[in-house]
Amino acid sequence: MPRDPKAAPKAAREKAAREKVPDGPLSVPLDGGRTRHLIWFVATAAIGGALLIFMGILAQLLGAALLVLAAVHGWRALRTFLYEGRRIEIGTDQLTLPTAACGGTLAEIPVTDIHHVFFLRHAASWAATGPVLVIETADSVRTYPRHWFLSEADQRQVASTIRRRLDGSTSRA
Question: Which of 86, 145, 149, 138 is nearest to 109 (CA)?
Fold first, then answer.
């Protein structure tokens, strides 16, 4: 009778996860959150507009603040239409890491320049959806929150693949 994988010890699960990591190149798409930004835009614009039109001076100030928030989310939603979603691409000796989920610049980083790859689970800020993937390079620290990925499995696969590349690189400084 096969064993339940949830009952397996943690080390065995981690070993099984490492074995599923591909040796070849990996490309993981990032999610720009178009729907989330559109919902926030519509909701804050409607509530802010109603407060601005129908209420007193304090509510009008709150309504103006909500309209500013609506403008921010409107811009973020527009960016998802203007720019294609970025991808994290991991080759055998080089990574392509974006600075934003949509738009932004791409940085090509050799695997030998990466120092650490880890998750922030409980130490993440209250505004970030955890876990946050952190990639420390020779000259910067890049963070990739959970909501940028289509699934948490994609986030874990990126971390596992980079760790495997780090373990395989012998010329680390």
Answer: 138
What spatial distance separates the first Cα and last Cα of the chain, rounded to whole Å? 48
Q: Are 31 and 149 in contact (CB under 8 A)?
A: yes
126-141 pLDDT per residue, tens: 666 668 888 888 888 8
How confident is the model over 64-74, as pLDDT tens digits? 999 999 999 99
Query: Token digits for 43?
Result: 């909701």
**Crossing angle of the two packed helices 10-20 and 152-168, in degrees rounded to 10:** 80
**Strand residues in the chain grouped as ranges (E):** 26-29, 87-90, 94-98, 106-110, 114-120, 132-137, 141-144
The CA–CA distances, whole Å, from 135 to 62, 97, 167 equal 38, 10, 15
Q: Which pTM was predicted?
A: 0.64
Parallel, antiparallel or unpaired: strands 87-90 and 94-98: antiparallel
